[in-house]
Amino acid sequence: MAKKAKTTDGYIDLLAAQKAQHEAWRPLTVREANRLAAGRAKVSVDPEDAHLWRVERDGAQSVQAHEPMAREAWLAFLETGEAAPTKDGQTAADVYAKRRRDIDRLLEWLRQELAKHQKQARAEPRNWGASGDLYRVRSGLLEVLAALRGCEIADIERCL
């Protein structure tokens, strides 16, 4: 539970209020999450994405990746096994849908930028810079696809 702000001479200490609010929504560290779990789950840094938690439950029979949670959300997750809504009321499904829409928009934007890039490359056929640009884009896309599929980049390259 979040700490209440101190009142001094009838006025709320804003610094203490901001600190209390920050503390209520601050994501826990891996160490704090493990301490609060008290053996009900094990948290580590996700090997695929260091920004996420890797949460093992039921003796590693259940392994999930989660965004770091604040104290209240983590305690609720330990009780129910489901991540609680974010502070603005979004559920995991809401966040997923928004991120999916963003990715669709980014892919369309990428197609538009590739079309412009191709016109520039055709205008300068001896310039190797455009090929270098596409090497970087291709490498990034291979990395993203490998992360989504849960496989190695070399496996995808063999299919190209």
Largest sheet composition: 3 strands, antiparallel
Class inferred from helices and paired strands: mainly alpha
- Count of strand segments: 5
Radius of gyration based on Cα positions: 23 Å
Number of domain units: 2
Strand order of the largest sheet: 3-4-5
Portion of residues in beta strands equals: 5-15%
Summary, kept brief:
By secondary structure, the chain is mainly α. It folds into two domains: 74 residues, no CATH class; 68 residues. It contains six helices and five strands; from the N terminus they run E-E-H-H-E-E-E-H-H-H-H.
Characterise the protein shown here.
The structure is a single chain. The chain is mainly alpha-helical. It folds into 2 domains: 7-80, no CATH class; 92-159. The protein is 56% helix and 12% strand. It is built from 6 helices and 5 strands; from the N terminus they run E-E-H-H-E-E-E-H-H-H-H. It has helices at residues 14-25, 30-37, 71-80, 92-123, 129-149, 153-159; strands spanning 7-8, 11-12, 41-45, 53-57, 62-66. It has a 3-stranded antiparallel sheet. Strands 1-2 form a two-stranded antiparallel sheet. Helix 5 (129-149) crosses helix 6. It is elongated, with a radius of gyration of 23 Å. The model has no long low-confidence stretch (mean pLDDT 84).
Element layout with pairings:
Blueprint: E1 7-8, E2 11-12, H1 14-25, H2 30-37, E3 41-45, E4 53-57, E5 62-66, H3 71-80, H4 92-123, H5 129-149, H6 153-159
Antiparallel strand pairs: 1-2, 3-4, 4-5
Helix pairs in contact: 5-6
